[in-house]
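Subject: Interface between my chains keeps coming out wrong

I've been trying for a while to get a sensible model of this assembly. When I model each chain on its own everything looks fine, but I need the whole thing in one frame so I can look at the contacts. Pasting all components below, labels as-is. Any help appreciated, I'm running out of ideas.
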Amino acid sequence: MSAKVSAPVSTFQSESQSNSSGTELVDRLRVRLRPDQVRDSATEVNLYRHDASNMSGHASVVCFAESRDDVQAVVQVANEFNVPFVARGSGTGLSGGAVPPDGAIVISLSKMNRILSVDPVNRIAWVEPGVLNLDLSTQIAHLGVHFAPDPSSQQTCSIGGNVANNSGGPHCLADGVTSAHIHAIEVVLPDGTITMLGGEDPEPDGLDLRGAFIGSEGMFGVATKIAVKLMANPFEVATLLLDFSTVADGAYLVSDIIADGIVPAAVEMMDQLCLQVVEEYVHAGLPVEQAAALLIEVVGLPAGVEADVARILELAQARNVGGIRVAADEAERALLWKGRKSAFGAISRVKPNYYLHDTVVPRHRLPGVLDEIYEIADRYELFIINVFHAGDGNLHPLLVFDAREPGVMDRVRSAGDEIVRASVAAGGVLSGEHGIGLEKRDLMPLMFSDVDLAAQADLRRAFDPALLANPDKVLPSPATCGDIHSAPEGAWV
Amino acid sequence: MGMSSTEANFLDAASERFATEVGAEGEVTIAGSGTRSGAVDGVRLVHAPVGIEWVQPAEMTIKCGAGTPVEEVDAALREHGQRVVIPSGGTIGGALAVGQSGIDRLGYGPIRDALLQTHYVSAAGEVVKAGGPTVKNVSGFDLCRLLVGSRGTLGFFSDVILRTRPRAQAEQWFMSERDPWELIAELYRPISVLWDGATVWVHLEGHADDIAAEASTTGMVETDGPSTLPQQARWSMSPSELESLRVATPGSFVAEIGVGIVHHTRPAPNREQDAAVVEMNRRIRHEFDPAGRLNPGLAD
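Reply #2:
Try treating it as a single job with all components included. I did that and got this:
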C-alpha cells in the first residue's frame, strides 16, 4: 500500500553545477542514448530528487530509457565513470528507495510501459517495468484474469517498482505478495550484463535468483521485462462492513476468522478518526459513531462464499459486532472500497501533513499494539489514524500534524520510532510492504544481528561487487563498508 | 495461542548445538531421512534439530526444527484444520533444500513461498536468521527464497517458521477425457490438473456444493486419485510448451497443466543455462561458502 507522504521535503541545500567529470558523464550518455533522453538541467534533475517519502537526494542526470539496450547502455556508462545509478518507476515508494544517492544517474523506466504478451489460459503476461499496476489488470479484465498484488497506489505505481519492493496490498492476504506472482525477470545486472532470472518454467536450474532479486530495492540490478502470474477473476464476491464499539473487538475478530479456517480475500480495519474523515470525503454512510470498522471481502464460488459469510457473521456476533452492512451490488462494493482507499486523500481535512508508517505484528498482538500506538500518539500530542491490512497484521499508523507548528517534526520522528520498536518487540517486523530503503535502514539491527546483516551484504556483493546499484539503501553502513555515500537530506525513521 | 510446545525456545539452544556440530572447517554434509537425495558420500554427516516448538493457528504459522518429519508437522497441523504446502515424505529441511513443489502447486503455489523465517547454519559455523515470523514482511533482502532449493550449499536449515493454510472443507479428484486446456479454462482455481496425453485428472477443493456443481458443468467423473506418476524424470517446461506433449505417447508422462512440471518416463532434455546465471550462482555460492565445504559437489 502506498500513498504520498505530505510532510515537507527538507530544503534543497545548494544546486551544484555540473563539474567537468559530470559534463563528461552527460556527454558520454548522450552518445550512448539519443541526446533528448538524457536530461541534466537543474529543473529536470530536481524533479527526481525524491520519491513519495520525505527524503531527498541529488542526482547528476536523468536518463529516460526506452528499451533494455538503453538501460544497459546507461549502466555501462555508470560503470565506466564509477558513478552510482538508481532505477525509478513511478516514484510512489514511501521508504526513500528511489531517492538518488549523491551524484547518481537516475534511470527512469516510465517510458518502458508496454504490455508485451498475455496468455490467459496459462495465466502469464510479459510486461515492461513501467507498466502501471492497475493498467495491467484493467487492460486484461476482459480475459477474466488479473494481476493480484494491489498496493493502494496501484493507479500510479509501476510493476517494476512492485518487483523492487515486493509490494503488497489489501488482497495479498489470500493471494500473497508480489514475489508469489512473478515467474521471470529480464534484468540488466549492475555490471551491465543482461540475463533472465527465473523462467516461465516452474523449476529453473540453480538458485532462485528471481526470488533474491524481488524486494532488493534496486540494489541487484534493473528489471527490463517481467513475466507475471495472472489469476482468475473471482467468480463471486461478498463485501462486508462490520463495526465495533471497541478497536479490540474488531482486532480479535480478525484472529477468530483466520483460526476458524477462513482466509478472506481482504480484511481491512479503519478506526474511528479514519471513518470520520473518510465519511466527510466520500459520503458512504460509514459508521462514524463506532470505534472501528472491518472491511472484509470473501471471494470464490457461490456456496463457499455464502458459507464463509455466514460463519464470519456468527464469529462477529461473539465479538459484539454493532452494524453489519453487506454490499448489495457492485456500486456499493466500489463505494466501500473507495472509502478505504481514499483514506489518505481525506486526511488533509484534519491537518495538512501526515507521516505514514508500515509495520507488521502477529495478528493476535493487534489489540495490544494498537493500544500502545494510541498511547504513544497521546504522549506526543499527535493525531493518529489507523487504517490498515488487519488480516495480515500489517499496521499503517498515520501520524497527522501541521509541519508549521514549531518542534512538531521531532515529536513525529520520536513517535514513529517508538511505534516501529513496539511492533518489533511484539514479535513483528520493520516493514510489511513499503520496504526499508533509507527510512528504516538504521533500524535493521532491531530485527537482525551483525551476522544476519553480513549475510544480506554477501548477497548484495554477489550481485553488485562495485556497489553502484542504488547504494546506501536497506543495509546499515557497518554491514556494507563499501557503501560510503552520505545519507540524503531528511533521512529519518 | 494454542501453542503445543515441547519446551519454550528449545530450538534456540538446538541451533547453537547444531552450529557447533557443523563447525567452521572441513567438508560437511546434511541428511534428513534421505528421502529426496540424501547426504554426499564420504563426507562428515550432520543432522538438523528435530521437533515442533509451537503451532499458532490464528497466525497460520508453525515453528519447528528443520529435521522434523513432514508427516509430524502435518499431523500437528491437522489438529487445527491446517496444513503446510510441502510435499509429503522426508523432513521439512530436506523438502525445502531440494525445493521441489508437490502436484498441488497450481492451487497452492510453490514450496518456496511456505518459508517465512529460518535460522540456518552458515559455512562459518554461525547461526544466521533470514526472513521474519509474519506472512507479510519486506524487511531486508529475501534470503529465504534464495535458500529454498539451494540444496544446502549456502547454509544448512536449522529451524524454520512456515506459513500454514487451512484445510479445505471438502475435496475430490475427478477424471475426464476432455482437452486439458479447455478444462482448465472452465474451472475456478483448481488445485491440480494432471494429464497423461489421454486422461485428465482434476483435484478440486472448497465447498462440497461448489465442487459438485463444477464437476457437473464440466462433465467430469469422480475418481480416487490420479494415475501413478512416472518417477524416472522430472521435466520443467513453460506451461504453454506442454502442448508439445500432444504428440508424445499417452501414458509415458503425466504433465501438471498450468504449472509445467512433467513426470516423465524419458530423461529430461538438456537445458542450456545462460552464462550470466551460471556466474551469478557461482558468485553467490562463493560469498556464502568460499571453501565449498557445505554439501560439496551439490553446487553444480
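Reply #3:
Confirming on my end. Residues 1-5 of chain B have pLDDT under 50 and may be disordered.
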